[in-house]
Write a structure and sequence with these properties.
Helices cover about 30% and strands about 25% of the residues. Strands 1, 2, 3, 4, 6, 7, 8, 9 and 12 form a 9-stranded mixed sheet that branches. Strands 14-16-18-19 form a 4-stranded mixed sheet, with helices on one face. A two-stranded antiparallel ribbon has the order 5-13. Strand 1, helix 1 and strand 2 form a beta-alpha-beta unit. Helix 3 packs across helix 7 and helix 6 packs across helix 7. The longest helix has 16 residues. It is globular and about 60 Å long. The protein starts with a strand and ends in a 5-residue tail after the last helix.
């Protein structure tokens, strides 16, 4: 089995920690190393092969962190232009034999329950060997509005759902039929490419042209023009929502998965345990001074932050920007990033 680690995300909801030059998967956001390093560690021993798909701006970051882990002999695909997950996976699959089992893992997720994770991947590989396209759901623990959902009956996929509003998410949770869409997949390389050709022929044709004309195939480096000619589309839209070969492995809550897609999610990972003197979550130094303040996420880059009688805030200090938001609203940091594109794009 070959593991493909996708590095293309930009993590805009974690601005100003995550930026174009240092997106969240490579930044020191959680203790113990970057999210990318964590993805490499938990996936490296799953199979015989390892392939990293990254854009040109991330390739050096990935190579540097891989070298720090002592990882060598991996495959690489360099995207001169990002075109979403379906083209990235297709081009990586074109580098492999058609019968190769492929496990696709995002580089920016956090997984703490490794035995449960490995058991889920093993089950996914079994289904992939039987010709299935496997997606991985996460058994939900609360009514999250920032994730897509998968409706299932056992391992049978009934439908895919977009990110819901709060009322719909609560209904999904209560029904017991829905899981969070993790963005992880497993299939034979040839099966995926066949289904891509059947359900998104224009994407398959453009990827094939980019593969055939690539001036370098080890690492794979499509030309910028050929890459730009590929339609930008997610693997869910291109294949998974259309194919009749899709199965779902639902991962248990004990896998302790998070995509760390917002500061709310980061607070959930870093908050002190119940009964601690303070419920503030702190990253960086110096330690903040807190007066009657609880439930806050404080990230410091060297300034002393003082909290006085405030609750449930996110305060992120970086050398050139400070973010202050209320917990529960941090999905809207992306709106602030959109606003900055017109007023101060250098901060992105």
């Amino acid at each position: 089995m070959t593991t493909i680690i996708l590095c293309g995300g930009s993590g805009t909801r974690l601005w100003p920690l995550s930026r174009a030059a240092l997106p969240k998967q490579f930044a020191a956001i959680v203790p113990g190393g970057s999210l990318f390093e964590g993805a490499v560690r938990r996936n490296f021993d799953l199979g015989s092969g390892f392939l990293v798909a990254a854009n040109e701006g991330q390739t050096l970051l990935a190579a540097t962190q891989l070298a720090g882990l002592g990882v060598t002999g991996y495959g690489s695909m360099v995207e001169p232009v990002g075109r979403n997950t379906a083209p990235a996976i297709a081009l990586a699959c074109m580098m492999l034999p058609p019968e190769e089992i492929v496990f696709v893992a995002p580089s920016d997720h956090l997984v703490r329950g490794l035995p449960e994770y490995r058991a889920a991947v093993r089950r996914g590989a079994e289904l992939a060997k039987a010709g299935r396209l496997v997606t991985f759901g996460i058994a939900p623990t609360y009514a999250e509005t920032g994730y897509g959902y998968i409706e299932t009956d056992g391992e049978t996929v009934l439908s895919f759902k977009e990110k819901p509003d709060a009322e719909t998410a609560a209904r999904y949770l209560a029904s017991g039929r829905y899981s969070w869409n993790s963005g992880m997949f497993c299939f034979r390389a040839g099966t995926f490419l066949s289904e891509l050709r059947a359900h998104a022929p224009e994407v398959h044709a453009a990827c094939l042209a980019a593969w055939e004309r690539a001036p370098s195939k080890s690492p794979l480096r499509p030309t910028k023009d050929d890459m730009a000619a590929i339609p930008s589309i997610s693997v869910d839209y291109a294949v998974m929502e259309k194919s009749r070969l899709v199965s779902c492995v639902t991962c248990p809550p004990e896998m302790l998965w998070s995509d760390l897609g917002s500061y709310d999610a980061l607070y959930g990972e870093l908050c002190p345990p119940a009964g601690s003197p303070s419920s503030n979550a702190v990253v960086g130094t110096p330690e903040p001074v807190s007066v009657q303040s609880n439930g806050n996420l404080v990230i410091s880059a060297g300034k002393r932050i003082v909290l006085v009688d405030v609750q449930d805030l996110v305060v992120v200090d970086t050398p050139d920007a400070i973010l202050v938001a209320r917990r529960g609203s941090t999905q809207r940091v992306k709106d602030a990033v959109d606003a900055l594109k017109g007023t101060d794009p250098g901060l992105l």
